[in-house]
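new request in #modeling-help
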Amino acid sequence: MSKRKPVRVVEPPVVAERDQRPPVEAIRAAAFTQFAERGYPVVTVRDIMKACGLTQGALYNHFKSKDELLHDIIASTQGELERQCQQAVTGAGDDPRAKLAAFVRAYVVRHCRLRVEALVANREISWLGAERVADIRRSRRAIRDILVTILNEGVQRGVFDPPQIDGRHDLKAMAMAMLDQCTHVSMWYGPGGAFSEEQMAKLYADMALRAVGAKPQ
Amino acid sequence: MSKRKPVRVVEPPVVAERDQRPPVEAIRAAAFTQFAERGYPVVTVRDIMKACGLTQGALYNHFKSKDELLHDIIASTQGELERQCQQAVTGAGDDPRAKLAAFVRAYVVRHCRLRVEALVANREISWLGAERVADIRRSRRAIRDILVTILNEGVQRGVFDPPQIDGRHDLKAMAMAMLDQCTHVSMWYGPGGAFSEEQMAKLYADMALRAVGAKPQ
DNA sequence: GAAGCCCCTGAACGGCCATTCACATTGGCC
DNA sequence: GGCCAATGTGAATGGCCGTTCAGGGGCTTC
């Protein structure tokens, strides 16, 4: 009757065959799956290593600590996300409307396609030690700032007419709102549904353009 | 060098004076704060009880388990949220535009004002055992359905003209998107900022109305 | 065939976990 | 004053935790 740990639905991993990939990758992969299914604090080093056919001690030949392992996983998806957002915007030409649409579409497609990666990056980030969390936050701010810049341009050029509160805009809040919205598709979108990733992305881009009051192109 | 637990930024609680309120409430309050600051799995029963000036064993005179304690906390805020949403809508008259605005405003004001409650309810829910999570999910679905119903009415009556994908609506997806957006104000809104809770609520209501293509009233 | 390196093993360390239980201590009521 | 229920204590139970480290294989390179 003494259940020692909260379990988040899924049971610990069975023993596995030794993963054939290079050990660092095998460990990363196993940890990723475990963190996604059960959450960082209840996944033990032993669980992770068992899942790729090694023993506890071997982890420390490849990572300094469990914490570093988590950071490694989150940082790599976060970095790729930032790159993709930047790329989408620079490839979209000069019109703020096109930039906004491209940004949202890229962001949403990614969050539909790499749901699990997004989930881990967003849900487990709070377990990172203070030093290791800093660069992830920086990247998030950078992404937000891309969006804020687009909104600003749109307003300056008169192609966006966003809602005001007492005569003032709050473009930062709007950017946050949009990002929250787009980020959390990953929490409920399933590929089995009636709409594809691209259709979702289009829907979200439409909503974003409407929200900022984009003038017809 | 053997840091035993991930810490989520904040240190365990110092010993506290015995809380003067009735014990159940004192425990609930202490647990709530601890869960909010450090997260369910790393908060120990000893931590909670120490924070309200009791010892571990006493918890079990008031709750069956740590799990039940968490459920108790989440269920009470979730219930109140559901009630407030319902109330806002029924008090808003007949026009779907008014209903939508009222819903969003109530939801956002609450999530700005009770940020921490929202945070705990959303972040820690995944630690609840399968049996205990069911009624929370039911309540969430109920809230979503209120929103879907409003959107549906608006479309039927021709006062909403939401974006389509390949000629079809996806009102459920739109409802989810709006809820995600509104829920996560609680993650970054701070009362020190330039805008009040009510101003935020108005901003979000405006965005929602624009997103669904509400015709001018 | 020796040396050096990389990688893995599994025991060991010091400590903490949720829950139970025999045992006080209270305070109201006869 | 005696009884009872409610409530609190803190030791005990049977574990598991992240990390370290001595020991040992199996490579390559001389």
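bot summary: Chain A has two domains: 23-63, 67-211.
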